[in-house]
Amino acid sequence: xxxxxxxxxxxxxxxxxxxxxxxxxxxxxxxxxxxxxxxxxxxxxxxxxxxxxxxxxxxxxxxxxxxxxxxxxxxxxxxxxxxxxxxxxxxxxxxxxxxxxxxxxxxxxxxxxxxxxxxxxxxxxxxxxxxxxxxxxxxxxxxxxxxxxxxxxxxxxxxxxxxxxxxxxxxxxxxxxxxxxxxxxxxxxxxxxxxxxxxxxxxxxxxxxxxxxxxxxxxxxxxxxxxxxxxxxxxxxxxxxxxxxxxxxxxxxxxxxxxxxxxxxxxxxxxxxxxxxxxxxxxxxxxxxxxxxxxxx
Length: 297
Description:
single chain, 297 residues, SH3 type barrels, Alpha-Beta Plaits, 5-stranded antiparallel β-sheet, 3-stranded antiparallel β-sheet, 10 strands, MscS-like_plants/fungi
């Protein structure tokens, strides 16, 4: 019995309409180019769908919980509002943040105060975040109301930048060959990179090296940070192979080294002392190409 290792369009047409097949087929990596859905691409799609469904479920559950909390607070606010004006103000600001602004949902990857975190739980008064090292951080929503928040999930395709340093002696032809090789690689990975990119010379540093910046555009935002990092790593490794093929390197400048020799003069013979003084004179530099001589025997 032959076991198929991929799914073709004809297989899907047995269960779906032609329009539906053409809609879902591009969702599987490499399916459009090969006309086949491999086991790995199907597995990745299932995992992605599960993660998205789980995040949506958490978000809906937290929204429902927040509404229930709001109902419980409503009567207390009306009854005791005149006694706790500051508390009422905090609750009102939190309600505005959660239900009106609503800058994120559960599972969203956000950046707050320069720290990248994932939203784990949303309540009326507080939001719980999970930092990159799995540390939980609690933020009052009234405080979050005053802070700028970056949301990766709601962002469009996001860019990336790689800084490169090459030798200043790199020729224009080699530089153009480098740009061409990078373009060929990016265009060969349409599922990973948008064709729009740039390679710019930022500056010449210390007279001996050129600092370049390669700016690229992912075909995704950075919500899935692991996938983003994996694609970037592959690009960096490809750059290394391109440098090796083109012979582009970075060389250190030659450095002047000053040596100080402390010798007890009483232990040196007159002939040796004369030779040592001659080697220390400015005129000695003219004979640097000659074979070195042993001053001390």
